[in-house]
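Q: Sequence in, structure out?
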Amino acid sequence: MNEYQKEQLDALKQVRHQLKAMTRDEKQRLKESLADYLDFRRRVSAFLDTFFSSICTEKCYAGRLSACCSKDGILAFFGDVVVNALTSSPESLDTLEKAIIRPERDIKCIFLSDKGCLWQMKPIVCEMFLCDEAEQNVFGKNTEAEQKWEAYKEERKNFTWPDKVVLFEELERVFMEKGITSPIMYIHYSPGLLSIKKNRDKPPTHR
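A: Exactly. Output:
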């Protein structure tokens, strides 16, 4: 396995192990904290199904192009791993682990199988990716849909962009308090996101 695979496998295994060790109340609180995010994902999924399903299925899936699913290029947050683990069956997570260790496609994303993405709740970066051609096909004819998509991209920041305390930051914190660390805890370890948090936490200046 390369370093990318090791990071992904380690994060998934640690999350699964810790979820098993949590009390029922702890796990329930964690699930409840996802409510707004899962509602957001349902709305985004419905939007994509309405406007992009036929285009993306023909262009990428049926044509086996999968242009967005590059080799070792999916930036999955630790929060993505937690959300997926909480919304997946043990069997699907077992399949995901096996795919990380031994991917079906050597030149594509390790999570991509002949049946599609192996994540039950795919990483947010994947869900929100639209290629230029797909955007032009839809938004060139429907400005209302484009405006809706821009609104969804802004709403995404409420969960992932730490200019305020956000869900993905809190999910990392919960597991860090359990003694878990991972290089994909980007909100706590990425220099760029740490800079955003630092500016957020600065006291207001008074003139």
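The chain has a mean pLDDT of 89.
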